[in-house]
Amino acid sequence: MSHKSCYTNPGTGGKRPRNDKGNKVTVVLGAQWGDEGKGKVVDLLATESDIICRCQGGNNAGHTVVVDGKEYDFHLLPSGIINSKAVSVIGNGVVIHLPGLLEEAEKNEKKGLKDWEKRLIISDRAHIVFDFHQAVDGLQEVQRQAQDGINIGTTKKGIGPTYSSKASRTGLRICDLLDDFKDFSTRFKNLAQQYQAMFPTLVVDVDGQLNKLKEYAERIRPMVRDGVYFMYDAINGPPKKILVEGANAALLDIDFGTYPFVTSSNCTVGGVCTGLGIPPLNIGDVYGVVKAYTTRVGIGAFPTEQLNEVGELLQTRGHEVGVTTGRKRRCGWLDLVILRYANMINGFTAFALTKLDILDVMDEIKVGVSYKLKGKKIPYFPANMDVLQKVEVEYEKLPGWKSDTSACRKWEDLPGKAQNYIRFVENHVGVPIKWVGVGKARESMIQTF
Q: What's the CATH number of domain 128-220, 1.10.300.10, 1.25.40.10, 3.40.50.300, 3.50.30.10?
């Protein structure tokens, strides 16, 4: 056999045929600065999913889901955990604060969540958020404020410091916790000491923490699996519907977001592959969730922000307060430059447009369609924050529909001018809108196709 023939298959033009078998994974991602209503879209899809996964972030995310009049709050648990027929997965890309996880489960148990521990799988490669990571998160914010006069608006949940430990190879993972506890204890002490050297005011009760961690280890042991093998098996086994719930959003992505006012993980589609250990080939539909206007928590550039009665109206009508932080959100008109940018990175199959009903009272609605810099239109989204602060937004004005849409359940029920608003967004971004949200409940998501 000639050397060359090992590598070429004449029938496929010299390329090995791609293996297109296996279940495809459906992904739901935020397309703005978070708080778009991803939980609701996930909830809609989770009812018919077999496996629901989180792939990045930690309990800095906040998803609210309303079922049978009960409001559940999820931060670390995949919000699909309320589906008793599905398995929920916390992937290797997620950072896990164990007391936070258990406390969240208990809170939701009181509201009627049952048998969650039988339906939860935790990747053994996920990194652990320790209490001192959370303390350091707060101390770093104080330091930033003192040095630069700015803070990045962290949720103080220890997410950034944990990803820092992970990147500097001093982090500890679930698999370490479940293995030799003596070895784990030594590494834990060393990590705590490193942080204490950097932050002299940091107090860590090492023995107290280790006792608790030993207890948590036994509680979660039955839920821990090799995540890569689990996902491989799920994708290549019998037909299954697999859903991935993104946390945070495109403009909070560590690489593509409005740096430094971002989170510390990749909340764009690439984070799904690295955060669960699955090939790009197995990614199916990618749905972007978009609010009918724009909001942002904390500081950082926000080109379409309305510091006027429009912004106040959106804030009060939309109850724009963070689920995780309780902070008032900044509000402004819908920005299509952001949506086009998010689509360049994620390649959305379709959008879910939420909270359309909040715009019901507007006489006129503006939509940001492009940015100008020094009088010239720019086709890209600026990386530099100072540059982004300087862009001039070009708006298109659309007439408001001035009627209550909250009872609409079909496309035909929507007022003509509301339909025009939706079509305008689709045409300008080049992504179809598959769902339109007009209220809090499950029933208030209108499917358009």
A: 1.10.300.10
Report the chain's mean pLDDT, rounded to a whole number.
92
Q: Is 246 annotated as a binding residue?
A: no
The answer to whether the annotation marks 221 as part of a ligand binding site is no
Which helix (H) or strand (E) element contains residue 71? strand 70-74
Q: What integer pLDDT is reported at residue 19 of this predicted model?
A: 62
User: Active-site residues: which are they?
Assistant: 35, 63
Rounded to whole angstroms, the Cα distance separating 135 from 33 reads: 25
**pLDDT tens digits, one per residue of 199-255:** 999 999 999 999 999 999 999 999 999 999 999 999 999 999 999 999 899 999 999
Q: Which residues contact 409 (CB under 8 A, 6 or more apart)?
A: 443, 444, 446
Please indicate if the annotation marks 85 as binding a ligand.
no
> How confident is the model at residue 9, as a pLDDT?
47
CATH class in words for 290-447: alpha beta
284 labelled ligand-binding: no
pTM of the model: 0.92
